[in-house]
Structures are given as structure tokens and as C-alpha cells.
Amino acid sequence: MTEQPKAASTGRLLPNAIACGDAREQAARIPPGTVDLALWSPPYLMGKPYERDLSLRSWTELMYELLALHAEVLRPGAFAVVNISDMRTWPEPALPPGPYAEIRHRQGGVTAADVAAARRAHPAASEKEIARLLGCSDQTVARRERGSAHRAGRRPPTRVLRTSAIIEEAATAAGLYLYDHRVWSKTPAWKNNAWTASAYRAVDEWEHLLFFHRPGPFLYDRGRLDHDEWAEWGSRGIWKIPSVRRNEDAAPRFPDELAARIVRMLTEPGELVLDPFVGAGTTTAVAHLLERRWIGIDVNPRNAEAALDRTLLQHAAGEPTPEANDASRAVH
Ligand SMILES: C[S@@+](CC[C@H](N)C(=O)[O-])C[C@H]1O[C@@H](n2cnc3c(N)ncnc32)[C@H](O)[C@@H]1O
């Protein structure tokens, strides 16, 4: 990653750069009224390794503060599109302690004696490994060893928390209004949803796309898509696009196709696209490919560097690109 002069990190953040730092600090460096589209997906509060410093409270503050900044950096009439999956389950101390268990698990199958025998045979095995050996869930192992998992305090009862609702409230508070709401129908995430098998809850297989509008003149151009594109997705509420396969510990990324649809619908070539949670650089890479200008921000230096490489690779691949300017490098 090429380093900018130190002064750059406190000066104005100009197009065609990836800045490394907190989304709020860095977005505050963008000249007001210059962003034509913000497109992002925040950390989802799913307990992933890269989210370990976030509590619900600090996440909510991040959303409120960042959306308030959007109301300044977006051009009047421009959009901020937020992609988020709701945090499906959240411990709720107000709920009675349960039990919350699948009835067949309570009646038969693996017994406490089976678990004790497996423990004796494999003293170093984890709960998960014992569960695998016995062909049951790790909750069953916990229940057989310690009574109800809920009574043991291991799994407090949960309720659904709609993080998308918090984002909508934060946007409205900032003066950005929900213009449209679509659903990204993705690949069902069976592996991420251990609880799906032991509850009536649906598997995680869709995400929200919330289109917020900064009030102002909005001249829409139906000519940005052709007739078939409007019919197939431009006018459709559900976008069926497979998820990007990824490593469990890596930040999830949205598909290029999803970013490309939004960038094409809401901007013209040469306009500026911002992603303050740039991650793997999907938004900036797609924006670059589609001849838009771009700004990415990420708090993780490795992600910022990878996003820049991926974005500029579009250039190296000989795809159409905007004029590279002096700011086409990461900023520390
Ligand atoms: C869900 S990923 C975004 C993936 C991206 N949409 C893509 O397709 O590549 C979220 C990213 O936000 C970054 N992040 C988390 N908190 C941040 C903050 N306060 N400021 C800036 N970036 C942050 C993480 O490092 C992670 O790369």
C-alpha cells in the first residue's frame, strides 16, 4: 500500500482512495455534499471475530453518528443504500428461563450414560466433538451433563432483534428517508444457523436493502437500465443472487452483482460512490469498473489494503476505469 503524506489523514478525503480508520472519523474528512451514492453493509453484530469490540450500544452509536454524517456528505437528492441482515436472536433477560428445547431431544436418543461413556473414552474432546461422536447436538451433550442448558445458564432465552429497524430509526433521525426497501434473497446459511434445527425459526436466507434518500432534487433516468433489466430486477422487490463463498472468519461480503445493480441504478459514470465499511472492496471495485469515482473506508488495515488492491486490479485487468488521480492510494 502506498503511503500518503501524514497530513493527508487529517486533510480532505478525495475520490479514488481507500482510507484506513473509523468510518466516522474518515467520513468527516469528505467534503460536504459531494457523495452521489453511499453503499454499505455494516458489521452485523453476529459475534464474528472482527466484531468483538462492538456492543449493541456502541454499534447503535456508530450507526447514528455515521448516518448523521451521511446527511452532510451526500449531495441533496442522493441515496444511501444499506445492506443488513437482522440479528436474529439476542439474549433477553426479561424472558422466563424456559426450557426451550425440541421435544424429541428431551425424550430419547442420547442418554446421560452415553455422554459419560464418550467422555471417559475421549477425555480431551470438546463438547462439540463429543456431540459429533454421538451424532447429536452440543446442546444435547450439555443437557445430559448439566441438566437443561438454559437452567445451567449457558443459553439464555433469546428474542429477535431487528438491527435493520435501528438503522431505519438512525437514518430518519438524521433526516434521511426510506425511499425503497428490497430483499436480497441469498444462499441459505444452514451452517451459521445451529439454532434453526432446534427452533421454529427460519434459516438465514435473506437480507435487507434499505434505500435512504437525502431530500433534494432527484432526477431519475429510466434509461439507465434496458427494458429487460427493469423487468428482471430493476422493478423487482426480491433480488435472488447467490452469496459469495467465504472463509468463516473473514468479513462477509456482498456479491458484485448486488453492488453493480445499485451503482448502475443510482449513479452516472464519473459520480462518487462511498463505502465506509469497504471490507473486501466490493463496492469500490465495482464502482471503478463502472467508471464511477470511489471512496472506501475500513478500520482494519489489512482489509483497507486488500480492498485497494482489488479495486485497482479492475484497472490492471484492462477494464474501463476512471482517470486515476493522485489520491488513488490508501490513506493512513
Ligand atoms: C460486512 S464487512 C463489509 C464487506 C463489504 N461490503 C464487501 O462486500 O466487501 C464490514 C467491514 O466493516 C469494517 N468495520 C467495522 N467497524 C468499522 C468502523 N467503525 N469503521 C470502519 N470500518 C469498520 C470491518 O473491518 C469489515 O471489513
Description:
- It is a single chain.
- This protein is an alpha/beta fold and 332 residues long.
- It has 2 domains: 244 residues, Rossmann fold, CATH 3.40.50.150; 44 residues.
- The protein has 11 helices and 10 strands.
- The longest helix is centred in the first third of the chain and has 18 residues.
- It is elongated.
- It binds S-adenosylmethionine (SAM).
Layout: helices, strands, pairs:
Elements: E1 17-20, H1 23-27, E2 35-40, H2 56-73, E3 74-84, E4 87-91, H3 103-107, H4 112-121, H5 127-134, H6 138-146, E5 158-161, H7 163-174, E6 177-185, E7 206-213, H8 227-234, E8 238-240, H9 256-266, E9 272-275, H10 282-289, E10 293-298, H11 301-316
Parallel strand pairs: 1-10, 2-3, 2-9, 6-8, 9-10
Antiparallel strand pairs: 3-7, 4-5, 6-7
Helix pairs in contact: 2-7, 4-5, 4-6, 5-6, 9-10, 10-11
Q: Main sheet? A: 8 strands, mixed
Q: Which architecture of the largest domain does the CATH hierarchy give at level 2?
A: 3-Layer(aba) Sandwich
Bound small molecules, which ones? S-adenosylmethionine
* Radius of gyration, CA atoms, in whole angstroms: 23 Å
Total strands: 10
CATH first level of the largest domain: Alpha Beta
Structural class: alpha/beta
The CATH topology annotation of the largest domain reads as Rossmann fold
Strand order of the largest sheet: 1-10-9-2-3-7-6-8
Q: Which strand-content bin applies to the residues?
A: 15-25%
Distance between the termini: 10 Å
Specify the overall morphology. Answer: elongated
What would the average pLDDT be, to the nearest integer?
A: 85
Uncertain runs: 1-8, 149-153, 320-329
Question: What is the CATH homology-level superfamily of the largest domain?
Answer: Vaccinia Virus protein VP39
Give the ordered list of helices and strands: EHEHEEHHHHEHEEHEHEHEH
Total number of distinct structural domains: 2
**What is the number of helical segments per DSSP (H or I, 4+ residues)?**
11
Helical content (DSSP H or I, runs of 4+): 25-40%
